[in-house]
Amino acid sequence: MSLILYERVGHEGRRPSPFSWRIRYALRHKGVTVDYVPMRFADVETVRRLSGQHMVPVLVDGDRVVHDSWNIAVHLEERFPDRPPLFGGEAARGMARFITAWADTALAPLMRRLIYADFIWCLDAGDRAYFRQSRERELGMTLEEACADRATAMASFRRAMGPLERTLAGQAFLGGAAPTYADYAVFSFFQWARLGSPGEILSEDSAVHAWRARMIGLFDGLGDLFAGYPAPQDAAAAP
Question: pTM of the prediction?
Answer without folding.
Answer: 0.95
